[in-house]
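Supplementary Methods, section 5.1.

A reviewer requested that the exact input to the structure prediction be made available. We therefore reproduce it here, unchanged from the version used in the analyses.
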Amino acid sequence: MNVIELLAGLPAQHDRTAARAGELRDRIQHLTAALTKTEARLANPVTTRKVIAGLAPASGQPAPPETNTAYQAIVNTFNQHPDQEFRARELHERLGMPTDEASVDITRSRLGHRTRQGFLTQPGRGRYQKRT
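The structure derived from this sequence is encoded token-by-token as follows.
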């Protein structure tokens, strides 16, 4: 094979290689999207496990009445500011409590429980206020 024949075959080789690169890019894009969805699904059970572990009593014992200081501090905040609306994260920040998602989710659950009991109202999505 001479140089002219090699040069003549280069465009076809280039086209095949470019097509293969395009196929690989498409596969990478598809796999990246699938990986993103899968990783998002992995986060859900972890968060759920943390929330349930925080709500469930240890070793199958019935849950003790909520008399801990964090709960009492939240109730005191609503009692001191009956006309003010609070979000769960705002309460944590105001009281210097941990603001990680699992801790705030536990407080949201407790605030929802107090709303169903009639102690609090929910004037807006995610906002809680003392019932007057």
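The radius of gyration is 29 Å. These observations are discussed further in the main text.
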